[in-house]
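Researcher: I need the complex structure. Ligand is zinc ion. Inputs:
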Amino acid sequence: MNKDQGQEHTPAIDDIKEHQLPQVKITLANPLRWVNSYILRGEDGVTIIDPGPRTDSSEQEWMNALEKLAIRFDDIASIVLTHHHPDHYGLAGWFQERSGCQVWMSARAHQEAELMWGESSSMDADLPDLFRRHGMPEVWLQRLSEHLNSFFPQVTPQPAISIIHDDLPFRMGNRIWLPVQTAGHAPGHLSFYHADSGVLLCGDAVLPQISPNVSLLPGSDSDPLALFLAGLSRLRELDVRVAYPGHRHPFTHFRDRIDALLLHHEERLHDIAGMLQLTGGLNAFEVCLALFGDKLGIHQLRFAMCEALAHLVELVDRGLAELGENDNATLYFSVRQSPVS
Ligand SMILES: [Zn+2]
Ligand SMILES: [Zn+2]
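Model: Output:
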C-alpha cells in the first residue's frame, strides 16, 4: 500500500451517524495501523466482516471486543471475507473452529487463497523467481521466501469456505446486500452494497488516504492494473452515501476518492513511461526504486515491486512499452527507443 498525497476530507458526520455500523479495530503495523471488522446482527445471528490476521494480540483484542459487545461464539453465524489477504482472512478459521460458523468469500478469492496459502502453494519459490527475472538482487531474494512463509501462522487454521456469487443478493444482518466483485488489489475482491441506505462495505477496493496496492503475482491475473481500474469504474456507478473501508475511517467522498485513485495511476503510468523514454531501458527493480526509494523493508519492497510490475505490464498492454533482455533480466523500453523489432 502506498500512502498518497490525497487530501483528508471531512466526513459528512450526519450520514455516518445515521448509518453507523458496529466496528472492531484490530491493530496492524504501519502504514495500515488497523483493519476494520464490521459486525452485523440479524435474526439469523451475528455476521463478522473481515476478522483480521491471526496473531496472539489480535486473538486477545477479539476476546475483549466480544465481551464488550456481549457476543458469544455461539452467536456468530457467519464470517464474510472481502478478500484473501491475511490481514482480513487470517482469523476466519480460528472463528470457525470456535463457533462452527460458515465462512464466505468469492470463488475467485478462494482460488487465490489456495494459490497463496494452500498446501501445494509454491509462492515462496515462484515470487523470488519472478523478481530475479526482473532485476531484484540476491540479497533481497534470499529474505523473500522466509518473509512469505512468515504469513502462514496468520492464516492458520484455514477455514472451510462457502461461496458468494458476484451480483447475486446476499443476506447479512437483516439486510439484503449486493456483492460487487472487482480485482486488481486482490482477485475476487467483494464489496457489499446496500442500495436503500447507500452503504457500501468496500474492503480494500477503495481506501481513504491510502492507495490500495495493485500487485502482479505469478500464477495470478496477468494485468491487475487494468482490472483494478475497471473495478473502480464499476464501483463509481454505485450511489454511495457512506463507504466502510477495510482500513482507516468510514468516508463519504466515495466518487471523489475513486477519481483521485484513477488519476494517481494514470500519473504513475505517465511517470514510468517518461523514465523509460529518458533511459535506455530499465528493469522492474530499477523502476521500483525510482518510484518508491531504496529505504523500504522486505515487506513494503515486495508490494512496491509487485506494483511496479503491474504498471509496466499495463504500459506494454497499452503499446507504450516493450520487453527486451539484458544480463538475464527483463528490461522495459519505451516503444520509440526499443531495440526489439
Ligand atoms: Zn488487501
Ligand atoms: Zn487490507
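Model: Summary of the prediction. The two ends are 36 Å apart (CA to CA).
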